[in-house]
Amino acid sequence: MALLEVENLNVDLSTAMGPARAVRNLNLTLDRGQSLGIVGESGCGKSMTALALMGLLPENAVTTGEIRLSNENLLKKSERDLCSIRGNRMAMIFQEPMTSLNPVHSVGRQIMEPLRLHRGLSKTDAKKKALQLMDRVGIPNPEERIANFPHQLSGGQRQRVMIAIALSCEPDILIADEPTTALDVTIQDQILELIHNLVAEEGMALILISHDLGVIAENTEKVAVMYGGTVVESGATDQIFGQLSHPYTQGLFAAMPKLGMSRNKRLTTIPGTVPDLVNLPSGCTFTDRCPLASNICKETTPPIEELGPAHTVACHNLKKAIEARSTGLYE
Amino acid sequence: MSVFFAKRFLTFLATLVGASIVIFIVMEILPGDPALVILGVDATDEAVLALTKELGLDRPALERYFSWISGMMQGDLGISYAYRVPVWELVEGALKITIPLAILAMTLSVILALVIGLYAAANHNKIGDVSLMGFSQLGISVPNFWLAILLILFFAVNLRWLPAGGFPGWEEGIWACFKALILPALALATVQGAMLARITRSSVLEVFREDYVRTARAKGLSQRRTLWGHVLRNSMIPVLTAMGFQFANLLAGTVVIENVFHIPGLGSTVLKAINNRDTIVVENVVLLLAGMVVLTNFVVDLLYAVIDPRLKAHDI
């Protein structure tokens, strides 16, 4: 039995323009200790998926489908039960360390909070544990730092504090939503390595959300490529990186700057922009931007085809796409 | 810390000097001769001239300004032209009513605002929120003197629980004075509390959208615990700013309510002094008010630093 199974997840946001389909028919599975990367452009539904898993979507969101954690459907649970799961069995690290910590509480107090809430630790015990956690996430002088307020720490240190908070109750699943996007490049690697090591040591499952393919390739065993609110390709990281299949996945790769590329050559881009979630096309959502799009793409949702064990792709023109792999679809 | 206080003290002094000059010039320009007002229109020119001399009003303006200031520094506010008693005697009695009234009204207003504002924010867009905001809109729109009359009708005339007006004096005991002040305080607090409630509500709702509130929820805190533990304190800065303004307003701007309840507060004192062209009283009271407003702002600034640790770092 998988630790986390997401089946047919749909998230609709009611907006002034009508319902926006932020996540559509999303399926994911995650085993204990496994790491999954979710990759895609801004607005493809990555963060919405993460928030849906945590049950922290905005009030105007309607979630349907099933999110099963150890076979229990979280969407059927009461708010009270969800509170006992959040921060305890499932924890999350956010994109913006600068604004994700409460400016008026000391970092120590913020790390101690879940320990006192879920573990019922006394102040002294929680403080002891907080000091250990701060040491573990690589904050120097925890004894001094514990009384500091967030504004007295650098961005990297604050993200370390966030990691300490997320780790405090030894969750089964850690969700990291673009944890390094807001940080300096030099700090990014340190933070990712820290997450990577901690996850391995604790045996936690990891969901790493990023738009950076390099980050995903280095840190996860499985990948789900999202586009227009749904998964267009998923499989083991090696499989996907070894045999790029979906035209969108190929586009993401082609758009990465490469070392040794000639200076006066322009970077490859995928033409167009992400679809409007309020007016999604009825067929494949990538149709407007896909170099292989045909009439059928416009009208019917592409079937999910298995390319290999657990490697699935949703594309009408899969054969053509695979053939085009060697020449490059976007050249 | 001491740099902070020194800076603040200098601002305090500079404000007082500036205010004293402005007040003095305004009172100079104001038409109406104190001596003439005191003696009446039928007075002979000689009598008016003699009184002007007696009051010291024949001296050049600059000299009078400096004698006012130097007198004040020695604790002498001068003698009222109209009543021939020391100004401090007039002001002291008024302050003993106005300050307790302002504090009582502010307390009621804050209680009202926090209860209504927090409840409305926690039940955003639900029936409780919508109806409370409707009431607060009503509270803001109602003129406070009209509300005061309603309160008198209900609590003093119909129920006979409280006096309809007047102030017994502190020698009659705290309870009697409290009974005399509670209705005017309530009339003042309703309007201000309604405004403050709306500010509280919008500020709380704004903080609810902050990233760190999402973090708190991701830790497993319930909506209620998040509100008390993470939202409330962060949302208090704009509320505190408004409270500062309101308190300053309560010190000086309660003339109408004082008149409805026949309370000899600071507002009535200064109004009477203006009518009598009792310039020395007006100048001193206005300067006193300016000082109290600066002091209020200073307390508000200190409270900012208590609420938000980031502000300490910038100020000191």
Keywords:
heterodimer; A: about 325 residues; alpha/beta; 8-stranded mixed beta sheet; 4-stranded antiparallel beta sheet; 12 helices; 12 strands; globular; B: about 325 residues; mainly alpha; MetI-like fold; 2 domains; 14 helices
Give an account of the 3D structure.
The complex is a heterodimer of chains A (331) and B (316). Chain A has helices spanning 46-54, 79-85, 107-118, 123-136, 142-145, 155-167, 185-202, 213-219, 237-242, 247-254, 295-299, 318-324; strands at 4-15, 18-30, 35-39, 61-69, 72-73, 90-93, 173-177, 205-210, 222-227, 230-236, 304-308, 311-314. With 331 residues, chain A is an alpha/beta fold. The longest helix of chain A is centred in the middle third of the chain and has 18 residues, at 185-202. Chain A has a domain at 243-324. Chain B is mostly helical and 316 residues long. Chain B folds into 2 domains: 16-73, no CATH class; 90-315, MetI-like (MetI-like fold, Orthogonal Bundle). In chain B, 79% of the residues lie in helices and 0% in strands. Chain B contains 14 helices and no strands. Classes of the chains: A alpha/beta (331), B mainly alpha (316). The A-B interface holds A 54, 56, 79-80, 83-88, 91-92, 94, 96, 99-105, 113-114, 117-118, 149, 151-152, 162, 165 and B 210-212, 214-223, 229-230, 233-234, 307-310, 313.
Q: What is the string of helix and strand elements of chain B?
A: HHHHHHHHHHHHHH
Helix proportion of chain A: 25-40%
Mean of all residue-level pLDDT scores of chain B: 86
> How many helix segments of chain B?
14
* Spatial strand order of the main sheet of chain A: 6-7-8-3-9-10-12-11
Number of strands of chain B: 0
SS-derived structural category of chain B: mainly alpha
Name the CATH homologous superfamily of the largest domain in chain B.
Answer: MetI-like
CA-atom Rg of chain B in angstroms: 24 Å
Structural class of chain A: alpha/beta
CATH architecture annotation name of the largest domain in chain B: Orthogonal Bundle
Unreliable stretches of chain A: none
Q: What is the global morphology of chain B?
A: globular
Whole-Å distance between the termini of chain A?
A: 44 Å
Q: Largest interface, counted with CB-CB under 8 A?
A: A-B, 30 and 22 residues
